[in-house]
Specification:
about 130 residues, three-stranded antiparallel β-sheet, about 50% helix
């Protein structure tokens, strides 16, 4: 999760830096008394930095958040959700049945998946699924 947030912040920072480089061809820091002129290459450098920033944002948007799916196990019998660190032996403390990963559980039990339109209708009516 932290890596995703860092890639988003880095991407946005690089995109902004790239745009500022395209707009201004020279950089001056009064604090450090530093002056740098990109010369005629400021467009090329700015576009390059902007593309790298866009790639970091793309990584943030496309990377699957595995933190939630990898942390939890489900009992196929009583359908109780457990944190992996709470059941080190991988068995349900209530039913003594082997637990399944959360993602694989819903793939192997498609009858438990609630369609999106049914979820929307139940939430409008005040029902929970």
């Amino acid at each position: 999760m932290v890596n995703r947030i860092l890639s988003l912040l880095l991407g946005i920072s690089l995109i902004l830096y790239g745009f500022f480089t395209i707009i201004q061809r020279a950089y001056y820091s009064s604090k450090f008394d530093f002056y740098f002129d990109f010369g005629p290459y400021h467009y090329l450098f700015g576009i390059f930095i902007t593309i790298i920033g866009a790639l970091f944002v793309y990584i943030f948007l496309t990377r699957k958040a595995k933190d939630f799916e990898d942390k939890f196990l489900v009992c196929p019998q009583c359908k109780t959700l457990f944190d992996k660190k709470d059941v080190p032996n991988g068995r349900c403390p209530h039913c003594e049945v082997a637990l399944e990963d959360l993602e694989r559980f819903y793939e192997s039990h498609p009858e438990l998946n609630v369609p999106d339109d049914k979820k929307a209708n139940n939430s409008k009516n005040g029902k929970t699924t």
